[in-house]
Please model this.
Amino acid sequence: SIEDVMKKIDRSSKLGVTTVLLQGGHNRELPMSFYEELVTTTLQRFPHITPHFFTASEIQTMASVSHLTITQVLEKLKAAGQHTLPGGGAEILSERVRKKISPKKGGPEAWLEVHRAAHRLGFLSTATMMYGHVEEPVDVVEHWNHIRTLQDQSLAVDNGGGFSAFIPWSFKPDNTVLQRRFPRRVGPVPYLRMLAASRLFLDNFKHVQASWFSEGKKVGQAALLYGADDFGGTLFEENVHAEAGFVNVTTLPETIILIHEAGFDAVQRTTRYGLVKRYPKTMTPEEVRAQAEPGVSLRKNRAVASGETSIRIDEDVASPL
Model:
């Protein structure tokens, strides 16, 4: 229920969360009004929190149930106060791959259609990629090309819409139907190569996010030297990777210290990459712990954004292959 969600958001708000990422539901019994009320209630009770709700496949389900177009669904969510979309569910934007691993989500155009419509309405969204299963290198390049082309189209409109960041992560096979075919997890070296190549190919993306929660904190730290400029959020509740038996947790002070150890200043950001607070790398760990509040989003130093607690890093990013 909406009240159940509000209880979770209230608990997160008290920990300093600035963005709530909510996704994963395809309940055909729920009317469009439920989602609108969810957004408005969140903003009424927690005006300091960004509702970063609903993936492309959920938007498609809302449109189907409500007999509305994708654009009409997004217009209703925007009127309710939502202005960003998560990029989950992209998997690999290849017809061949999606038929094998996510046939119910449709081909690449099903995901692209939603983000294209969102960008036309001024939404910011993220682009994700889950690799390490049935894809070949040509599928990865096709994925990159799809999102780079859409980004060019969206930026040309110049209405504030577009992709804010690219976030790749590796497939976790445990407890999935693909586990028998792909029992091993992809290691950190392919991940770092993926980041570096992504940074080079996606020349119209300002930010590439280090997925420490899926790859590990030390790998996330190394990612800042391989093309990533955003460390993402601290996260207080995550269920997708947890279902696959892969759980990572961190705190805001630990995140800042990891960024400092990599040689960068840390900057707390908003979901739309607005600057909130800077933590210079000259700070001692004791000073960081004394100043950092729980639940913030950090990146490397450039303007940043996120929706849990997000952090960025300072200085231009090196992307060794």
